[in-house]
Amino acid sequence: YTSGSTGRPKGVPVTHHNVARLFSATDHWFGFDDSDVWTLFHSYAFDFSVWEMWGALLHGGRLVVVPHLVSRDPGAFLRLLAGERVTVLNQTPSAFYQLMAADKENPGTELALRYVVFGGEALEPARLADWYERHADDAPTLVNMYGITETTVHVSYIALDRAKAAAGAASTIGVNIPDLRVYVLDEHLQPLPPGVTGEMYVAGEGLAHGYLGRHALTAERFVADPFAHLFGERGSRMYRSGDLARRRADGNLDYFGRADHQVKIRGFRIELGEIEGVLADHPDVADAAVVVREDTPGDKRLVAYAVPARDTTPAALREHTAGELPVHMVPSAVVLLDRLPLTANGKLDRKALPAPDLAAAVTDGRAPRGPREEQLCEIFAEVLGLPRVGVDDNFFDLGGHSLLAVRLAGRLKTALGAEVGIGTVFQAPTPAALDAALDASDRTDELDVLLPLRPAAEDGSSSQAPLYCVHPAGGLSWCYAGLIRHLPADVPIYGMQAQGVGPATAADPLPATLEELAAHYVDRLREVQQDGPYRLLGWSTGGIIAQAMATRLQDLGHEVELLAILDAYPAEGFRELPVPDQAEALEALLAMGGYGPDSLEGKPFELAHVTEVLRREGSPLASLDDATIEALNRTYLNTNHLVRAFDHRVFHGDVLFFRATVDTIDDELTPETWTPYVTGRIDNTDVACSHKDMTLPEPIAHIARVIGDRLRNLEN
Fold it and tell me: Is the CB of residue 493 less than 8 Å from the CB of residue 502?
């Protein structure tokens, strides 16, 4: 699916033949075989992933699925490339420039790369000079490949070297794949001579069938090929790419961007009209436009312009787009105008749209509370290109994005000597929050029963009651960190973790009943919040424990205003299941880290093999020592035993339920199985994932939006 100017993504039917011939037609260039190791770096929603996945599978090679946070951390990704002995790396130029910087900072990293294949956006060859200072021309070979979803991923090929990089001012995309034809035509579909820029059209074996159910659009973009007879064909089509190019005298093509308003940013092809449509749907917007600006060289940003129909703010409109669009399509800034500028012909005058004044979004809050906060404000301002940043200003609201977050992490390491992961920047996006996160890394026991994921402000400024997230069977609550990005910033978030794992409870006997366990957790959360109303959430086994905690709090006379259960079902169902063993405990640990049994690659469920996977994949759980993992296994087996012996009491209130709809264990397990134990409504939300994936980025974002809506309703 590709972006659509009407707001409806366009489905592109691509045959198996198209994918198979993509590799057979390029085999003479690459010679891939079963010894190659590929990475799945990109989202499977991005057509580059077709090349990545099938490149490995069709040749019998190995595919390394890159964890999301590792893909956003160039240093960690470089270590993964070295550790996994990756031979074929596929990158957008933007991502590779960041990897180049990490490579420079870590000299001597031994890589096994044979090829680095660029695609997804225009390459700036001159920026590769730094790479060639440290690497031979053929170790690895850098290859630039222009491609289009509608013509099956790749269209052209050129192998680069230091001489070509030094001479290349434009993005050279090379020659067509042998079973494709690339024409450079004028507006009358007449061929243009070398040296003259025109629009690219692609014909040949790679063309898709068209757009699914969009016959008019198919006819507009997949047009008759007037030159087909020259190649012994009749009635064949060519695809109008919308991209501008110029053919050189030697037959190679130079790429010059789009002929229309479609753009590519950080590898994503975006229809600006889709973002404009989302803005225009907002009741407070009368008119809208979106453009790509590059006010700082090399830093392309989406900027939206809106004509308000009534009072609104840029922050409110940006939040609206963030709720409707994926992250890469959310504008860095929204500018309010009295009216959109027009040309003499009545068309939108894009050149007259003003640059956003991001500095105006900087707040006049409190002064920094110490030298480190002051330094953090200065570093934020430097990376964002602003004169100043306040301690409570959000990095992403001021125009930051994932690539700038990488740059910010690098500057923090240089300036403060602090190792700050990209995930920390997302979770603590203000100087004040980042300062607290750096402090917390020194003093927080991440294995304690009560884990502050986003603690309540010490000055009491947090305006809402905390949300307490109860651990799943694996025992830790680290999996709930994704809620931080998506729940309102004034909602504190705490994790409830298994007794007997961290130093604070390691010497204590394990609880003998689930009631005892729930009572202990209630006592701990009341260290933060003495009185209700309380808000509880639990996934899997954590849902059973959360319901038990809710009844315990009600017995103590407290109000429980939110009980959210993530794909968990009453304890009575556990009695029919086999008694868990050590292997099941280790499988639960893998699932908590975001990995399934397949990650063991056929090895038995043994502690050494599980820890090997967690460390190889860069899981946060990789920092746990063997003694801690053994403690987690003990608590897993004990908690499972407690659940089997537990009889639920009735919770007096409503339940917010989330049901995983993919690979359900038992279709008879429905939200209604809680009916005997709940007096109020059971409001269900289906989540398109499997049970073990409920806290991965996309599912947890969906869950957080629903919970956020419920919290807003509670406030009203």
Answer: no
Helix (H) or strand (E) run with residue 254 in it: strand 253-258
CA count, 13 A, side-chain hemisphere, 701: 10
Q: What is the pLDDT of residues 185-236, one digit of tens each?
A: 998 999 999 999 899 999 999 999 999 999 999 999 999 999 999 998 888 9
In angstroms, the CA 641 to CA 571 distance is 11
User: If DSSP codes are grouped into helix, strand and coil, which group holds residue 7?
Assistant: coil
Q: How many residues does the chain have?
A: 716
Q: What is the pLDDT of residues 16-70, one digit of tens each?
A: 999 999 999 999 999 999 999 999 998 887 888 999 999 999 999 999 999 988 8
Query: Three-state SS string across 326-347, please?
Result: CHHHCCCEEEECCCCCECCCCC
Q: Give me the DSSP letters along 257-285.
A: EESSSEEEETTEEEEHHHHHHHHHTSTTE
- Give, in order, the Cα–Cα distances in Å from 256 to each of 96, 197, 316: 20, 8, 36
Provide the CA 546 distance to its chain's centre, in angstroms: 29
Structure tokens at 622: 């990789």
Q: How far is CA 648 from the centre of its chain?
A: 38
**Residues with catalytic roles:** 691
Where are the strands (E) in 516-571, listed by range?
534-539, 560-566
Dihedrals phi, psi of 58, to nearest 5 degrees: -70, -25
CB atoms within 10 A of CB 671: 20
Q: Which residue has the tokens 């050590």?
A: 582
Could you give the CA distance from residue 596 to residue 619 in angstroms, rounded to a whole number? 13
How much is the pTM?
A: 0.48
| Residue whose C-alpha is closest to residue 47's, from 202, 153, 145 | 153
